[in-house]
Amino acid sequence: MRGKILTVKRDLWGGALIALCGALTIMEANTYAVGELARMGPGYFPMLIGGFLVALGLLIPLSPDPDEVLETQESDADGAPQPTRAQRLRGMACIAAGIGAFILVGNFAGFLPATFALVFISAMGDTSNTWRSAALLAAAMTLFGAIVFSWGLQLQFPMFRWG
Question: Where do the H-state alpha helices sit in the chain?
Fold first, then answer.
């Protein structure tokens, strides 16, 4: 019972902190011109993100207890084993490394190599992925990103850059 109370308190404090960050983001976004959907101002996107953070902060305390979810998953699962702590840490490390690679590679080589690096490294965080499946996923997402961001949205980020 004591563990459940600690989990509820931790979720409540975590949700409150995220909602507070969202509220502060909304307050700061109001110092810029927000605009409207057809003509977005510099404060529009931060306002939107702040709203999402507030909503997320309010939903976190309502989430189910992790122990109850784990018991349900283990009993309802089709025999798939739960990931170990090392596998979860590998996933988190690969996602963080993928984001770092996107920043570095994007700075020196452009959008397409950076997107490929991001997706490939992040996909390697899943132990069920092989390097070949991660490369195929990365290639598909890079193509999708080129179509959406370069052609569709006309993003001002060079597709390739040398140096």
Answer: 2-29, 44-59, 66-76, 85-108, 111-123, 131-145
Confidence (pTM)? 0.56
Closest CA to 94 of 151, 40, 134, 35: 134
Structure tokens at 107: 């700075």
31, two tokens: 């110092």
Q: How far apart are the first and last CA of the chain?
A: 58
**117 closest CA partner among 93, 141, 133:** 141
In the chain, domain spans: 1-75, 85-153
Q: What letter does residue 129 receive in the DSSP assignment?
A: -
Give dist(CA 64, CA 82) in Å, integer: 18
Read off the pLDDT of residues 116-134 as tens digits, 9 standing for 90 and up: 999 999 999 988 889 999 9
